[in-house]
Each structure stands twice: as C-alpha cells, then as structure tokens.
Amino acid sequence: MFNISALICGLLFGLGLAASGMTNPEKVIGFLDLFGNWDPDLLFVMGSAVLTTVISFRFVLKKDKPFFAPIFSLPTAAGLDKRLLTGASLFGIGWGLYGYCPGPAVAALGYLKPTAFLFVAAMLLGMLFVERKLK
Question: Pfam families this protein is in (predicted)?
C-alpha cells in the first residue's frame, strides 16, 4: 500500500508541476529574473504550496503515525552547516541557469525534450558521485 500511495502522490505532484508551468524552464527562468522581464506566476504556485503545508501539517502531525509508515520521518538537524549551504547554493545556481530542478525535470521527461533527459542524466550522475564519495 505504501508503494501505491507513493506512486499516486508522485503522479499528482508531476501533474501539478506540469499544470503550473514548473516543467517549462523558460517560465522558471522568467520567475527568477527579478531585474529583467520578471514573471510572477510561479509565486502563486509556491505560495499555495506553502499555505497548503502550513495548514495541513498542523493536522497531520497531531496523528500518532502516518497512514503507511510506522513513524514520522522528520528532519532532526536544526543548524546550518557547510554541506547544507553548499547544496542549497548548487541547487539555486543550477535552477537559475538551467530552469530545472529535480521534480520538474523528471516530470518534463514526459514531453520527451532532450534538455530534460540531459538534465536528469547529469542529476543521476551527480547523485551517484556523491553517494560513492560518502561511502
């Protein structure tokens, strides 16, 4: 049941990304171009996601456990460290330069765009590199 619910959530997430324009790199870069031809559309996407999270987490975290897992898996680190700041910086730079981040890039594979395939391949290679380096 856990895998089925994860698949359904992933499909809904991908459909939401596609419907909101987050899978379109030009739209994302337009949103990030604050001093040029700024496109505020994605501000509403992010705002609705934050609002949904703020409201729903108040109810979800009152439960003893998730529906399909034995315990909640929440982050425990509260501070900023070098790894977090480096990763966030690389994420932001890559998102700003390319217009993709991991979720929208995977969803964009459905459009069969070569740029999406290139991005996802590079992302997977980077994940493999980090995984091997940490071992």
Answer: DUF6691 (PF20398)
Give the helix/strand (H/E) hosting 119: helix 114-134
> With contact defined as beta carbons under 8 Å apart, do 104 and 28 qualify?
yes
The answer to whether residues 31 and 40 touch, using CB atoms and an 8 Å cutoff, is: yes
Mean pLDDT over each residue of the chain, to the nearest integer: 87
Residues 59-74: tens digit of each pLDDT: 998 999 888 888 888 8
Burial of 115 (0-12, 13-18, 19+ CB in 10 A): middle
In the block, tokens 């980090």 appear at 130
Contact 23, 104 (CB under 8 A): yes
pLDDT for res 135: 66
